[in-house]
Specification:
This protein is of the alpha+beta class. The chain has 2 helices and 8 strands, in the order ααββββββββ.
């Protein structure tokens, strides 16, 4: 009876796509892991703890990373050092857009344009309805 049970187990493993001989072998096999091939040389430059959790995805330009935060804030962080450059009070649950030194932020009822280097508000336009 033990022999027929072994036969059924081998048949079951074969139906599931596993090689029964490898499963029954007592050899210690080393797991072969593929080599890591990096497309670019990568190294961590800094780690920063944000004052509030992000409310949407970040955007970046050559110099800074712009992150909308919960609690009605957007923060600009220096890409080289991780230092906070500026933080302004604008609520947004949308990723900002950056173009020609201006950060565009869609709030629930306004569109804001903020100077990317200083955080100064350039203009804001009320929206008839949400973005």
């Amino acid at each position: 009876m033990a022999r027929s049970l072994r036969t059924y187990v081998l048949l079951l493993f074969s139906c599931l796509g596993a090689c029964p001989h490898e499963l029954l072998a007592k050899e210690d096999r080393k797991k072969i892991e593929p080599p890591l091939a990096s497309l670019l040389p990568l190294e961590q430059a800094w780690v920063v703890t944000l004052p509030f959790p992000p409310s949407a995805a970040a955007a970046m330009d050559e110099a800074r990373v712009y992150i909308p935060l919960q609690g009605d804030h957007i923060i600009a962080i220096d890409r080289r050092t991780g230092e906070t450059i500026w933080m302004v009070d604008v609520e947004s649950s949308w990723p900002p857009l950056v173009n020609d030194g201006v950060v565009y932020i869609a709030a629930s009822d306004e569109l804001h344009a903020i100077d990317a280097a200083t955080g100064d508000r350039k203009w804001r336009v009320p929206l008839g309805r949400g973005p």
